[in-house]
Specification:
Blueprint (H helix, E strand, L loop, with lengths): L8 H11 L7 E4 L9 H16 L3 E6 L9 H13 L7 E3 L4 H13 L3 E4 L3 H7 L17 H13 L8 E4 L14 E5 L13 E3 L1 H12 L3 E5 L6 H10 L8 E5 L11 H9 L14 H7 L3 H11 L10 H13 L4 E2 L1 E2 L2 E6 L7 E6 L10 E6 L2 E5 L19 E4 L4 E9 L5 E8 L17 E2 L1 E3 L4 E8 L23 E8 L9 E4 L3 E5 L6 E6 L35 H12 L4 H7 L3 H12 L4 H11 L11 H12 L5 H14 L3 H8 L7 H14 L1 H8 L5 H12 L6 H12 L1
Parallel strand pairs: 1-2, 2-3, 8-9, 10-23, 12-18, 16-19, 21-25
Antiparallel strand pairs: 4-5, 5-6, 6-7, 11-22, 12-15, 13-14, 15-20, 16-17, 17-18, 21-22, 23-24, 24-25
The structure holds one RNA strand.
Length: 743
RNA sequence: UGGCCCGUGGUCGAAUUGGCAAGACGCUGGGUUCUGGCCCCAGAGGUUCUAGGUUCGAGUCCUAGCGGGCCAGCCA
């Protein structure tokens, strides 16, 4: 069966817009504020914005959202461009919100002239106080009703620099009592006598995000403006400005997706900046930082970041991605790209007692058997070697596959060795293992074909190099450092451990990515190739602690027991209405919906008067016309006619719903719509019987499965018949026919 | 507390728009193996938050509840 490509809701929207002809092209934008370095959260936005544009052969621009001169700096612009490019994306153009300052200002004057904006001279404190709270409406500014002429004059004074910072602001005149607080006369411009990194001192008033963003999108010709969920509330004002500025459909629309959150990772820009300025990390590109530049220095490749974003998906639900997925994607990305090498992090010496020769140079392949790549290097074997201290156990636990007294193991690419003697110092610490090797086992296999339990990595003590290795752990041990108040106390002091390791000669002077066998993937530092960063450990099924692997399950709060259903409204008038409806034969749940809803109840009353049968009418209204501002083009008469039609079996419930949608959107006469759309229900037993047989014949395997007990398939068969009949089959009849044939 | 958004195996997420609850990560067991890696096979894990309702049929629509998130910056 063909795999269905996994989708996401934004992709679906774009596809629909293209299919319906709303848009003939796709344009997105990535709009970072140049006040810091890009991090993993931005990487998601970049992948989605650029990725979607590329997928639909559209355009994605880079737009620096530089509306606040005191926070922004050119230093960051270069870094942003570098990071986007490094991630593998190309922009159509580089734009700045500041490119539109002139147009934005003109639009502002036009809004003022039309009485849609005003200059407010309240202080910041007053503005805040008068905005009200989430439960109380705001109170209008005393300056709210000044004349357009006076507002224009003040605005021009603001622009001309006649007023100090904070003296006045320009506000959109929307609604001080709006439930959505963003709509309570949002600020459009504030005075800032500050030098802007691009426009210099040309301006002393600067637009706010809410004013500038949507209009910048509209001016650039963006079709789909993607941002994160916390801007959901802002969409209303986005639309308001774009519309009032005169941009008509098709115009840009904003779509919000959930932010990326990764277990143990903090992505707050402000906090990241503090880590840098407090010197807790070495800089924005410290390998422990979740910045793009930090990940780059660590050795994570852009393909891994893209794959990770791809696998975590795009949705509207807040979520926290488990670190396992991150690790897994990085390993997967490096597996076929990182040649294998050996090094020992915590060495213990072994002496091969029966080794007579000096140094023997063995041939070791760069890749394991399952990776179809060539290449090899020379590896020195000698009398004294190092192995990993943790690869030896004096008293091996169960299932131990490594070295232990009297146990034979393989030294990778080398020989089979057996531990004969354990040498300890006075304190009892093991200082050396005396082993013997099998001269016949060169390359790692004995001629007699005997098997050994395990294979260890090793290096020659006589021909090895010291390398600096840096091992990392997350900066935070808690799942969501962003959510923690005292996050600074939660830093893991062992997030970076620097050690000197013993490495095979081929690692000396090497650069790039390597898998140090059995230890993990490592990358040399871009500026200092003598430093090896551990990018990620190898997966291991030995000594694993399951508790560390997944985020702690979020507690499912104990459900409070459901209160016995009571549909009767509290409000006295509604309760009376409820009683009447119930007396008329309407069920309580349905009456409970209609009674308190003036719009729906009025519709019910009128449609009832127009001749619709009460119960089906009430059911339809209550269960289909729920949260709605208005009824569109739907009239009570049309609704009554529709209910009558459905009640007489002329259309099935699918058809009735389709007609209802049409009535709301365009109005019309139900019977005519039914005919125009071919929705008349088919209840002809012969016709339906043929279709049922056809479906049953087309899916013999499923028929088998059904007879084997998978009764859920009944819905599938019905669905198939419904599809074949364009939705017009009588489903009850189909079920009956199906039952006759299958049961 | 008002408005809005969101609840699908442990985690992230699909579901032909009302018709078979995908896939990946993780977990368990097995196979393979000169990496306790990779790869292969099998398996466990679900009242799709809860309770009602509409419907032949609900993860999807309606109502209520529960839980989480966002909004009261002259930040973005």
């Amino acid at each position: 069966m063909a795999e269905r490509e996994s989708s996401n809701f934004i992709r679906d929207i774009i596809r629909t817009d293209l299919a319906t002809g709303k848009w003939g092209r796709v344009q997105t934008r990535f709009p970072p504020e140049p006040n810091g370095y890009l991090h993993l959260g931005h990487a998601k936005a970049i992948c989605v914005d650029f990725g979607l544009a590329a997928e639909f052969e559209g355009l994605c621009n880079l737009r620096l959202d530089d509306t606040n001169p005191v926070a922004e700096d050119d230093e960051f612009v270069k870094a942003i461009e570098e990071d986007v490019r490094w991630l593998g994306f190309e922009w159509g153009g580089v734009f700045h919100a500041s490119d539109y300052f002139d147009q934005l200002y003109e639009i502002a004057e036009s809004l003022v002239a039309r009485g849609l904006a005003y200059v407010d001279e309240q202080s910041g404190d007053e503005i805040r106080k008068n905005r009200g709270t989430v439960t109380e409406p705001g109170t209008p500014s005393p300056y709210r009703d000044r004349s357009p002429a006076e507002n224009l004059e003040r605005l021009r004074e603001m622009k001309a620099g006649k007023h100090p910072d904070g003296a006045m602001v320009l506000r959109a005149k929307i609604d001080m009592a709006a439930d959505n607080m963003i709509l309570r006369d949002p600020l459009m411009y504030r005075i800032r006598h500050a030098s802007h990194h691009r426009t210099g001192d040309a301006w002393c008033i600067y637009p706010m995000y809410d004013y500038a963003h949507g209009l910048s999108d509209a001016i650039e010709g963006v079709t789909h403006s993607i941002c994160t969920l916390e801007f959901d509330n802002n969409r209303a004002v986005y639309d308001w400005f774009v519309e009032k500025a005169g941009f008509e459909e098709p115009r840009t629309h904003q779509y919000e997706m959930a932010r990326l959150k990764l277990q143990h990772v903090m992505l707050s820009k402000r906090r990241l900046k503090k880590l840098v300025t407090d010197g807790i990390v070495d800089g924005w590109d410290d390998p422990r930082m979740p910045t793009i530049s930090g990940l780059r220095r660590l050795g994570v490749r852009p393909s891994a970041i893209r794959a990770f974003i791809d696998r975590t998906g795009v949705a509207r639900a807040d979520s926290l991605v488990a670190r396992d997925l991150w690790d897994s994607v990085i390993r997967d990305d490096l597996n076929a790209e990182a040649p294998r090498r050996m090094a020992v992090l915590d060495p213990i010496e072994i002496e091969i007692a029966n080794w007579d020769g000096g140094i023997e140079w063995l041939d070791a392949p760069d890749w394991p058997h399952d990776i179809p790549k060539d290449g090899s290097r020379k590896l020195p074997f000698s009398k004294t070697l190092y192995i990993e201290r943790e690869d030896f156990a004096e008293q091996p636990p169960k299932k131990w596959k490594r070295l232990a007294p009297g146990v034979e193991v393989r030294l990778r690419y080398g020989y089979l060795v057996t531990c004969d003697q354990v040498v300890k110092d006075d304190s009892g610490r093991i200082v050396k293992l005396v082993c013997s090797y099998d001269p016949e086992s060169k390359g790692g296999n004995a001629p007699d074909g005997r098997k050994v339990g395990g294979t260890l990595h090793w290096v020659s003590a006589e021909a090895c190099e010291d390398i600096e290795v840096r091992l990392y752990k997350p900066l935070f041990t808690v799942d969501s450092p962003d959510a923690e108040e005292d996050w600074e106390s939660l830093l893991d002091p062992e997030s970076r451990v620097v050690i000197t390791a013993k490495a095979e000669p081929a690692l000396q002077g090497a650069t790039g990515h390597f898998q140090l066998e059995r230890l993990g993937y490592f990358a040399t530092d871009p500026d200092d190739a003598s430093i090896f960063h551990r990018v990620v450990q190898l997966k291991s099924s030995w000594g694993k602690k399951p508790a560390e692997t997944a985020p702690a399950p979020r507690k499912k709060p104990a459900q409070k027991p459901a209160v016995a259903a009571d549909y009767r409204p509290e409000d006295a008038a509604a309760a009376a209405r409820f009683d009447t409806l119930v007396a008329e034969g309407i069920s309580e749940p349905i009456a409970g919906v209609l009674a308190p809803n003036a719009l729906l109840d009025a519709l019910y009353v009128s449609a009832l008067a127009a001749g619709a049968p009460a119960v089906p009418l009430a059911n339809l209204i209550a269960s289909e016309l729920g949260p709605r501002d208005g009824l569109g083009q739907l009239t009570p008469e049309a609704l009554a006619a529709l209910v009558l039609l459905a009640d007489s079996d002329a259309v099935n419930s699918n058809g009735a719903k389709e007609v209802l949608d049409v009535l709301i959107a365009h109005g019309g006469e139900p019977e005519a719509i039914v005919d125009a759309r071919g929705l008349r229900q088919v209840s002809d037993t012969n016709k339906l019987g043929d279709m049922v047989d056809e479906v049953l014949g087309a899916f013999p395997d499923r028929v088998e499965a059904y007879k084997g007990g998978r009764k859920g398939l009944k819905g599938f068969f019905v669905g198939q018949v419904m599809q074949r009949s364009q939705g017009t089959a009588n489903p009850q009849l189909v079920q009956k026919l199906l039952a006759e044939r299958l049961d």
